[in-house]
Specification:
It is a single chain. The chain has three domains: 135 residues, conserved putative lor/sdh protein from methanococcus maripaludis s2 fold, CATH 2.40.420; 91 residues, Beta Barrel (Elongation Factor Tu (Ef-tu), domain 3), CATH 2.40.30; 73 residues, Helix Hairpins, CATH 1.10.287. The chain is built from six helices and 24 strands. The longest helix is centred in the N-terminal third of the chain and has 32 residues.
Length: 376
């Protein structure tokens, strides 16, 4: 099959010695060459750039996943035991601070409410008794000692009522409700990340009901070999990428190099802070990056990232050998920085490669191979 032969022959070229690949004369024909007429060349809108020297800061590849920022995530718990009467929270939903997530029917809440009601009643009666005594004392119709006794009783009733109100506030109960039901609300504005409670379920005090997180800033948790740790530029800027968003770069900053090494893998976790006000980066999303190292920069031959093409695992670029003629050249790549990729093998400084529009040539080459196969 011709299109399979294209991939096989390209892979074979990639394995040839450096001198043979780099010193090839321009080819007029063959499975790796495509010619465009002047009209087709103009219509393709290709952008051709010169491979040039560029500085690359030493870096270490790392991969991992997006995680909620633990400093901006809160576990919502029930302060009382009882039965979950209503669940309003839904995973993925945006909630505001103070928004009701759950309603708990609780005997403990009913007892606290009853205690408050009784205490408020006693406080009211004691205050009225004190007011009457003070009025009678003014006309010397009651003894001062009796008036003081009623004052002590009023103060005690007031303290009891205040303690009951504090219990209500501690449990998050609304004193205006008379049914003993507790409304559990969102402590922060954010996104509901987990819901563990179900309607009708029984819960004990401090049982986790949900997790709410502010995802405007998230973490990328990536791993590196322990041998790299001492050279990582802590606090350095990084570019994070995800296969979910091809070609998109998410700028971040190294926050923490974790102090504990995973014994099973001899790898260390590095935490990167990412701005996520757009909401694209969801927890669990796979990401990769290059972590900057505290070593002096070095130079290398570089091309724009868009120039790099891949054919069934073989990395290549389209090199302009003459006007309108392009050769598909296998290359090996190294570091990435600022949208450019280092080419360590297969390309010389000064050669011209297709940057924007390279996918057009790739499609044309594959279509030509398939057409030739059908003719056979």
């Amino acid at each position: 099959m011709r299109h399979l032969a294209l991939v096989v022959s390209l892979a074979a070229l990639a394995c040839q010695p450096e001198e043979h690949v780099s010193d090839r004369a321009p080819r007029a024909e063959g499975p790796h060459v495509i010619r465009l007429s002047s009209e087709a060349l103009a219509a393709a809108g290709l952008e051709i750039v010169t491979a040039s020297r560029s500085s690359f800061h030493p870096s270490a590849p790392a991969a991992g996943f997006v995680a909620p920022n633990a400093r901006r995530s809160v576990t919502v718990r029930t302060p009382v035991e009882g039965r979950v009467e209503r669940v309003s929270a839904d995973v993925g939903a945006r909630v505001g601070r103070g928004e009701v997530l759950f309603v708990i029917e609780s005997a403990e809440a009913s007892a606290v409410l009853s205690r408050l009601t009784a205490a408020v009643g006693r406080e009211s009666v004691a205050r009225e008794a004190l007011q009457r005594a003070e009025g009678l004392l003014a006309i010397e119709a009651i003894s001062r000692s009796e008036t003081e006794r009623r004052r002590v009783e009023a103060e005690a009733a007031s303290a009891e009522a205040q303690a009951a109100r504090q219990d209500m506030r501690r449990l998050g109960l609304d004193p205006s409700r008379q049914d003993g039901r507790l409304e559990v609300v969102a402590p922060i504005e954010g996104t509901v990340l987990e819901v563990s409670a179900v309607e009708g379920g029984l819960v004990a005090r401090e049982t986790p009901l949900a997790v709410v997180g502010d995802l405007s800033r998230v973490w990328a948790l990536v791993e590196v070999p322990v041998t790299t740790v001492g050279t990582i530029d802590s606090g350095g800027a990084v570019e994070v990428r995800s296969p979910a968003f091809p070609g998109v770069v998410f700028p971040g900053r190294i926050d923490v190099v974790e102090p504990v090494v995973a014994v099973a893998t001899a790898r260390l976790q590095v935490r990167i802070i990412l701005d996520n006000r757009g909401g694209e980066l969801r927890p669990g999303l796979f990401v990769s990056t290059e972590l900057p190292l505290t070593k002096p920069p070095t130079e290398g031959t570089a091309v724009p990232g868009d120039a790099i093409q891949r054919f069934s695992g073989v990395t290549a670029v389209f090199v302009e050998t003459s006007s309108g003629t392009f050769e598909l050249r296998p290359v090996e790549t190294g570091r990435e920085a600022g949208g450019h990729v280092e080419v360590t093998r297969g390309l010389r400084e000064g050669e011209r490669v297709v940057s924007r529009g390279a996918f057009v040539l790739k499609s044309e080459l594959l279509e030509s191979s398939i057409a030739a196969e059908n003719e056979e």
